[in-house]
C-alpha cells in the first residue's frame, strides 16, 4: 500500500488549478499487470474470490443485507458491494493537517466502491437492484467519513472505459474526501450565490420546475436534462427534486429511482451512439459543510469528442450536437428501450 509521497499544489495566479503530485500512482497499471497475472490473462482483482488482492474492505454490504468489515487475515465473502482504500491513493491520512493553517492538503480518503459482484457492465446494467445496493453502501460510507472534522468535501466519481480513465473494467466508483472544496464545486457555489441574489431562487430548483426541450426524463424524485452549455455531446445532469446539499438525507426509495435512472441512461446512450461499449464519466457534486447554498446533482459526460487546444487552453468547448436535439433523440430511444418494462414511468 505504498503511496509514495503526495504533494498538493495550487497555482498562485489561478486558484482553480489544483494538482496532487502522486508519483506512487504510476505503478498501478504495471503492478496489476505483473500480479496476474502470471497465471490467468483475464484476472480481475475486483471479482468475487479475489478479495485478497485488494486491501481489506472498510465496508461490505452482504447478500443478507448487513454491513460488515474485512480484517487483515479475513475477507467477507458473499458480498454485494465492497468499499476499500485505493491501493495507489492520491490522498492519505498519514499527512499532518494543521487545522486552520492550510486548507489545501493531500490529507484525505481515496476509496474504491466495487458496485457489484458482476464483472461485465452489460449484465450489471440489467440489475438495477445492484446499482441501488451500491448507492446504499455509498451513502453509509459518506456518513462515516464526513464525521472526520478535517474533511470538507467528498467527491464520488465513475470512470467507465479505458479512455475515461478506468484501469479496471469491473464496475466501480471512486471516492475522494478532501480537506478543501474542489475548484469546480467551489465555482458552482459562487454561481449559485449569484443566481440566488439575481433571481431569488436556486438555479437547479428552477430547472426542476420548468418545462424544457432539454428534459430527457422526469421521474417522481429526479429530473434528467441535457446540459445547457455542454462540454461533450449528450452530456447530462441528473437533479434530485428535493433541494438538499448532499445525498445524506436521500431515502431508499429515492436511491432506487436514481439507480434505475442511471442504468436506463447508460443503456440509452449506448443505443443512441450505436456502440456496445462507451467511455463515460459521471461525478456526484455535493457540499457538506456550511460554506454556501447548494443543490447536489450528478453530471454524466460521455467521451465523444477529443478536446483540443481550444477546449484545454480557453475552457471554451466546441460541441457538434445541439443539446435540445440530443434530448429529443435520447427521449425517443429511452421510450423504445423501456417499452413494456416500466410503463408507469413518465418519459
Ligand atoms: Zn471482475
Ligand atoms: Zn435547489
Ligand atoms: Zn456540478
Report on this model:
There is one protein chain. This protein is α+β, with helices and mostly antiparallel strands and 347 residues long. It folds into two domains: 6-184, 2-Layer Sandwich (HIT family, subunit A); 201-338, HIT family, subunit A (2-Layer Sandwich). It is 29% helix and 20% strand. The chain contains eight helices and 13 strands. It has helices at residues 27-35, 121-125, 128-145, 183-199, 203-209, 252-272, 309-314, 323-338; strands at 6-10, 18-22, 59-62, 67-68, 79-85, 108-114, 153-160, 172-178, 215-218, 222-226, 236-240, 280-285, 297-302. The strands form two sheets. It has an eleven-stranded antiparallel beta sheet, with helices on both faces. A hairpin with a 4-residue loop joins strand 3 and strand 4 (67-68). 34% of the residues are buried. One zinc ion binds next to helix 5.
Amino acid at each position: 500500500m505504498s503511496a509514495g509521497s503526495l504533494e498538493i499544489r495550487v497555482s498562485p495566479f489561478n486558484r482553480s488549478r489544483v494538482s496532487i503530485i502522486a508519483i506512487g500512482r504510476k505503478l498501478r497499471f504495471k503492478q496489476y499487470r505483473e500480479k496476474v497475472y502470471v497465471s490467468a490473462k483475464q484476472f480481475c482483482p475486483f471479482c468475487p474470490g479475489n478479495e485478497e488482492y485488494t486491501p481489506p474492505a472498510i465496508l461490505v454490504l452482504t447478500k443478507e443485507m448487513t454491513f460488515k468489515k474485512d480484517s487483515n487475515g479475513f475477507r467477507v465473502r458473499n458480498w454485494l458491494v465492497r468499499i476499500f482504500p485505493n491501493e495507489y491513493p492520491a490522498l492519505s491520512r498519514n499527512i499532518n493537517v494543521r487545522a486552520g493553517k492550510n486548507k489545501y492538503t493531500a490529507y484525505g480518503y481515496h476509496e474504491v466502491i466495487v458496485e457489484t459482484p458482476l464483472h461485465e457492465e452489460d449484465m450489471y446494467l440489467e440489475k438495477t437492484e445492484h446499482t441501488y445496493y451500491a448507492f446504499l453502501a455509498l451513502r453509509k460510507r459518506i456518513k462515516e467519513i464526513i464525521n472526520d472534522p478535517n474533511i470538507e468535501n467528498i467527491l464520488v466519481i465513475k470512470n467507465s472505459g479505458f479512455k475515461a480513465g478506468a484501469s479496471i473494467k469491473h464496475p466501480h466508483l471512486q471516492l475522494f474526501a478532501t480537506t478543501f472544496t474542489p475548484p469546480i464545486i467551489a465555482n458552482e457555489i459562487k454561481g449559485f450565490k449569484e443566481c440566488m441574489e439575481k433571481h431569488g431562487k436556486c438555479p437547479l430548483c428552477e430547472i426542476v420546475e420548468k418545462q424544457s426541450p432539454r428534459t430527457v426524463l422526469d421521474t417522481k424524485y429526479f429530473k434528467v436534462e441535457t446540459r445547457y452549455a455542454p462540454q461533450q455531446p449528450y452530456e447530462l445532469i441528473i437533479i434530485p427534486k428535493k433541494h438538499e446539499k448532499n445525498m445524506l438525507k436521500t431515502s431508499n426509495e429515492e436511491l432506487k429511482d436514481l439507480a434505475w435512472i442511471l442504468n436506463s441512461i447508460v443503456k440509452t446512450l449506448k443505443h443512441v451512439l450505436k456502440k456496445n461499449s462507451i467511455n463515460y464519466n459521471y461525478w456526484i457534486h455535493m457540499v457538506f459543510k456550511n460554506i454556501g447554498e447548494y443543490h447536489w446533482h450528478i453530471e454524466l459526460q460521455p467521451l465523444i469528442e477529443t478536446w483540443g487546444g481550444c477546449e484545454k487552453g480557453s475552457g471554451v468547448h466546441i460541441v457538434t450536437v445541439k443539446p435540445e436535439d440530443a434530448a429529443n433523440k435520447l427521449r425517443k430511444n429511452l421510450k423504445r428501450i423501456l417499452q413494456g418494462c416500466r410503463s408507469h414511468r413518465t418519459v
